[in-house]
Write a structure and sequence with these properties.
With about 100 residues, the chain is of the alpha+beta class. It has 2 helices and 4 strands.
């Protein structure tokens, strides 16, 4: 299990710049050490930041690893808004 609590998804119009570079680096390093069937959990951003969340999901889809993704909108009282959290299971085994 890896819990990334370093940063939220940047609110930008494109996946460019230092914040996205840092996010990509952390994601790449995490996926490199995460075992198959391992879980990676991270915060996204505010529920209404659809563009930022969409860019992050595009980034996830570009990863060379297979994974199962879940995203959960949760009301966070300290943020005073609904926030999206992501969980990835790397190369999930089949349980047919």
């Amino acid at each position: 299990v890896i819990i990334n609590d370093l940063t939220a998804i940047p609110v930008t119009a494109t996946m460019q710049g230092g914040e996205w570079d840092f996010l990509r680096l952390i994601l790449d390093l995490s996926m490199a050490v995460l075992k198959d069937d391992g879980w990676y959990s991270t915060q996204g951003n505010g529920y209404n930041n659809k563009m930022a969340l969409g860019l992050y999901e595009d980034l996830l889809e570009s990863l060379p690893h297979k994974f199962q993704m879940t995203k959960n909108p949760v009301s966070v009282p300290s943020y005073q808004e609904k926030w999206v959290f992501y969980t990835l299971c790397k190369n999930p085994s089949k349980t047919d």
